[in-house]
Amino acid sequence: MLASVRRPDVRPRLLAAAMAAVAVATLSLTACGSNGKGEGVRQEGAASPQSPSAAPQPSGPARAADRGASAAKPAAPAASTSHHARGTAGTAGTGAGTDGKGSASRDPYAPENRVDCSAADVEITATPVSRPLNHMLLTLTNKGSKMCDLNGYPIVKFEGSQSVPPVIEGSKPQAVTSLKPGGKGYAGVILSSGEGSGGEGYTAQRLEVGFEGSDRMAEAALQAKGVHIDNALRVTYWVTSPGDALS
């Protein structure tokens, strides 16, 4: 009779394998987790996706450089400030000639600053000359601080004379004689005819000289013995040189 062969019992091994499979499944479920709403719960330590609307922020040296660039950028000036600056420049440009005459208005020799020569600011000398005969030279010096114009001819009044001598028209200059401070102007005086055609005449010891447009006279000292005058008395216009006055 053949001996019966005993087969090994495999059930314990099958049970152990089943229990291991159950354990693995349990661990997987725990790892995934659930919040009860069908949404996965992020486990601690798991990486979370970044929101698409949040831009990455620089850090370290790059962020510091951005801050420095922002600080160095100048702020744009306000429109009112720029307008004020332009207005100020325009005002300064206008103020350069507030009198409307430019730099010439500050020039004491400019035409607009001239005045008429008057007895108040001149000095006059009367000097008889040897040539031409019977002539005398009037020399006027401007003692004022401004340029003055010698208009026309001298109003000559000798002591004892009943009238003002007329002017020699041929002596009229092309322009008015103007004198800077300290400048000199001249006029000639024909005292007498020399051959008796001017009448008997007389010797005058005193002379005054006036100016066109003014009633004030300036005294001109004569030589001690005086000068002889008669009805031939004449004067020239005011001119700029002694030669023109005596020609």
Looking at the structure, what is the overall shape?
Answer: rod-shaped
Strand content: 15-25%
The Rg value, from CA coordinates, equals: 60 Å
SSE succession: HHHEEEEEEEEEEEEH
Low-confidence stretches: 1-5, 29-56, 60-66, 68-104
Classify the secondary structure makeup into a structural class: alpha+beta
List the strand order in the largest sheet: 2-3-7-12
Mean pLDDT score: 73
Quaternary structure state of the chains depicted: single chain
Write a structural description.
By secondary structure, the chain is an alpha+beta fold. The protein contains 4 helices and 12 strands; from the N terminus they run H-H-H-E-E-E-E-E-E-E-E-E-E-E-E-H. The protein is rod-shaped, with a radius of gyration of 60 Å. The model is unreliable at 1-5, 29-56, 60-66 and 68-104 (pLDDT under 50).
Q: Short summary of the structure?
A:
With 247 residues, this protein is α+β, with helices and mostly antiparallel strands. It contains 4 helices and 12 strands.
Secondary structure elements and their pairing?
Elements (H helix, E strand, L loop, with lengths): L10 H22 L28 H12 L6 H17 L19 E2 L5 E8 L5 E8 L5 E3 L4 E4 L18 E3 L4 E7 L11 E3 L2 E4 L6 E4 L6 E3 L4 E2 L6 H5 L1
Parallel strand pairs: 1-4
Antiparallel strand pairs: 2-3, 3-7, 4-6, 5-9, 7-12, 8-11, 9-10
